[in-house]
Amino acid sequence: EPTVRTELMEQIPPIAIFLQESRPKFPTAFFEYLMPIVVRYLTDVNNQVRKAGQEALLILLEQDLVAQSDIENKVCPILLDLSAPDSDDEYKVEAVNIICKMASMLNRTTVEHMLLPRFCELCSDGKLFQVRKICAANFGDVCNAVGQEATERLLIPKFFELCSDSVWGMRKACAECFMAVSYTTSPEVRRSKLSPLFISLISDTCRWVRQAAFQSLGPFISTFANPSSAGLYIREDGTLSIRPSTQDVTSNSCQPSNNITLMSSSTNAA
C-alpha cells in the first residue's frame, strides 16, 4: 500500500536521529537498512511515496546524517539517472528540484564535480520548460554553492540563455534571483556582463518580467557596494541585510533597530 510506504518515509528522519544519538549501540544500522530504503523510494511508482522520500532525504542531508560516501555513491547517481535526457518527464522534474535543493547542503567539491555538469545541461533542456523554470528559480543558490570561479566559467553563460528564454516565466525567475547571482561574481563581471543583462530585463516586452526586474533593482545595485563601507552582507538564509553601525549598537536598546532586510530573489523564487 502506498500509504504505508509514505508513512514509513515520514518516520525515517526521527529514527535516523535516534540511531545517530545511539551510534555506539547501532553503528551501522542507518547505512545498512534505512539509507537503501530512502534511495529506493526516490524511484517509487507512486508520486506521494516519492515526494515523502525526497522530503526525508532533504531532512537527512540538512541534519548531516548522510555519509559523504553514500551521497557520492548512492544519492547522486540515482538523481543523475532520473534527470537524464531520456528519463520520464515526471521523474526528471522531481530530480531537478531535489538536485537544486541539495546544492546548498553538500560540500562545494561534490556539487561542482557531480551535480553542476547536469545542472548546466538541464538549464538548456529544450523538451520541458518546467525543468528550465526550476533551474532559473534556484540559479542563485547553485551559484552560491559552487562559488565565483565555477559561476563565471560555467553558470553565467547559462544564465544569459535563461534570461533570453522564449517563456516569459523563465525571464521573470531570472530577474527575481538576479541579486543572488550578482553577489557571487567579481565586480568586473558584475559591471561588464550582468549590468547590460539586467537592463535587458528591465526593458523586457513582458510587464511581469519588467516588474520583477524593477523589484530586484535595489538589491542588484547593492551588490556594487563595498561591504566594508556600506555594511551590506548576505545572511545564511539568503537575505540581504545592513549591519548596524557601532553608534547604533551602543545606543539605547529601547530605540528601534536600524537593520533593514531585503529578501533575496533566490529566497522568493518558487
Write a concise synopsis of the structure shown.
By secondary structure, this protein is mostly helical. 70% of the residues lie in helices and 3% in strands.
Which helices and strands appear, and what pairs or packs with what?
Elements: H1 2-21, H2 29-41, H3 47-62, H4 68-82, H5 89-103, H6 108-123, H7 129-137, H8 139-146, H9 148-163, H10 168-176, H11 178-184, H12 187-202, H13 207-222, H14 227-230, E1 232-234, E2 240-242, H15 246-250, E3 261-262, H16 265-268
Antiparallel strand pairs: 1-2, 2-3
Helix pairs in contact: 1-2, 1-3, 2-4, 3-5, 4-5, 5-6, 5-7, 7-10, 8-9, 8-11, 10-13, 11-13
GO molecular function: protein phosphatase regulator activity
Organism: Nyctibius bracteatus
Keywords: Repeat
- Assign a percent range to the helix content: over 70%
* Terminal residue distance: 31 Å
Largest sheet: 3 strands, antiparallel
Q: Which homologous superfamily in CATH is the superfamily of the domain at 109-231?
A: Leucine-rich Repeat Variant
Taking all Cα atoms into account, the compactness measure Rg is 21 Å
CATH topology of the domain at 109-231: Leucine-rich Repeat Variant
Give me the count of strands.
3
Number of helices: 16
CATH class of the domain at 109-231 equals: Mainly Alpha
Derived structural class: mainly alpha
Portion in strands: under 5%
SSE pattern: HHHHHHHHHHHHHHEEHEH
Apparent shape: globular
The spatial strand order of the largest sheet comes to 1-2-3
CATH architecture of the domain at 109-231: Alpha Horseshoe
The overall pLDDT average reads 84
Low-pLDDT stretches are 246-270
